[in-house]
Amino acid sequence: MARDMTVPWLVGGDFNVIWDEEEKFGGLPVSLNEVDDFRHCANTCNLVDLGFKGSIFTWWNGKAEEVYIFKRLDRCLANIEFQQTFPGLEVTHLSKIGSDHSPLLLKY
């Protein structure tokens, strides 16, 4: 599908997987197979992470102290056509309110 994609393409939301070990704090060790699968999928689709402003972590397991886990599960990926069409786009991780995920704000 990505091979034929010549229009701006944005994919965003909760991918339920991290990109690398730095995007997780606490809990069990990172599964490098999951990370590699996610990276391979994004690369195969010619998508890159648009980056972000705000806290690195967008999800929290709701636990305290020794059992807490923080991860960056939410992100926006886009192809080069999207980046060229919207060169000043910014992704901001907002504060969590009423959810275990931080909402994403796209600003152009």
From TrEMBL:
It comes from the Eukaryota. The lineage of its organism: Eukaryota, Viridiplantae, Streptophyta, Embryophyta, Tracheophyta. This is Uncharacterized protein LOC142169587.
